[in-house]
Amino acid sequence: MTSITLPAYAKLNLTLDILRKREDGYHDLQMVMQTVSLQDDVTVTLTGGEGIACRCGEIPGDETNLAVKAARAFFAETGVVPCGLDIDIVKRIPAQAGMAGGSSDAAATLRALRRLMKPDLLGDELERIAAMVGSDVPYCVRGGTALAEGRGERLTTLRDAPKLHAVLCKPDFAISTPLLFSRVKISELWNRPDTAGMLDAIHHGDVEGVMARVKNVFETVLPKDYEEVFDIKERFLRLGAEATAMTGSGPTVFGLYRDAGAAQMAYKSLSADYAQTFLTQFV
Ligand code: C5P
């Protein structure tokens, strides 16, 4: 086998809490993560030549691309002799959206390289390499419903969350993740998520409990320029969403629905105003 295509799913934060600032400049987080059916397709091919070529839609496929960084880290950390690679990414997940699109492409690249070149590599080891590429990459390697702690790399797989419909709506601006973190003063954070309650609700398959606890503390430090996020949340509520929040460091907002028809209606309404609106399901 010289080529493999794997899905790279987008993620949502059902909760996102910031616990403390660390000595290394990162923050200790607590996040309940969920993969959704919006996906990129990542094809990795062993070319038999040299060097890494990467095509990634409108995003540069150079050394700054997380998929290329992932391939370099894979060779450096596993001892597998580097060989020529072609990484072809069909992009559907918007970049800089809070949906871990780049991290998910990197994770799919790592999983593809394991399958093609080192099938006996343990999952833990692959996630350790993933953490060197970016904070969200280990979670993207694992997928499903999971608690992510530390920088995001300490993972606990949870019982699958109830299968909900998620409508995603990305306004037409980007929010810098480091900028948002720089606005956080831990002692002044308010309206934080009830992570323990969310874990309990997921454990018991309690859909209402899950819906009631969807929350992202980053919303409380959003600069004024980004208030459209709150307009979209209000719109989701008017469109019958049982829960709505920003995902990650934004700006994408999601609305959750039990009913497929209601999700479809919300999708129709929002996509008339926002080109980057997606109708998805939990995966
Ligand atoms: O790890 P990654 O490169 O994805 O992180 C991007 C930036 O987000 C970091 O440089 C840091 O400023 C911030 N960050 C943080 N705490 C985390 C994850 C990211 O402060 N747990």
Which short descriptors sum up this protein?
alpha+beta, 28% strand, 283 residues, Alpha-Beta Plaits, four-stranded antiparallel beta sheet, single chain, seven-stranded mixed beta sheet, binds cytidine-5'-monophosphate, Ribosomal Protein S5, domain 2
Task: Describe, in short, the structure shown.
The protein has nine helices and eleven strands. The chain is an alpha+beta fold and 283 residues long. It is globular and about 55 Å long.
Report on this model:
The chain is 32% helix and 28% strand. It has helices at 66-78, 101-117, 123-133, 137-142, 177-182, 195-203, 207-212, 228-238, 260-271, and strands at residues 3-21, 27-46, 52-55, 85-90, 145-150, 154-157, 165-169, 215-216, 243-246, 253-257, 277-281. The strands form two sheets. Strands 1, 2, 3, 4, 5, 6 and 8 form a seven-stranded mixed beta sheet that branches. A four-stranded antiparallel beta sheet has the order 9-10-7-11, covered by helices on one side. The model has no long low-confidence stretch (mean pLDDT 97). Cytidine-5'-monophosphate (C5P) is lined by residues 26-27, 29, 134-136, 151-152, 177-178, 181.
Topology, pairings included?
Layout: E1 3-21, E2 27-46, E3 52-55, H1 66-78, E4 85-90, H2 101-117, H3 123-133, H4 137-142, E5 145-150, E6 154-157, E7 165-169, H5 177-182, H6 195-203, H7 207-212, E8 215-216, H8 228-238, E9 243-246, E10 253-257, H9 260-271, E11 277-281
Parallel strand pairs: 1-8, 3-4
Antiparallel strand pairs: 1-2, 2-4, 2-5, 5-6, 7-10, 7-11, 9-10
Helix pairs in contact: 1-2, 1-3
Bound molecules: cytidine-5'-monophosphate (C5P).
Residues 26-27, 29, 134-136, 151-152, 177-178, 181 line the site of cytidine-5'-monophosphate (C5P).
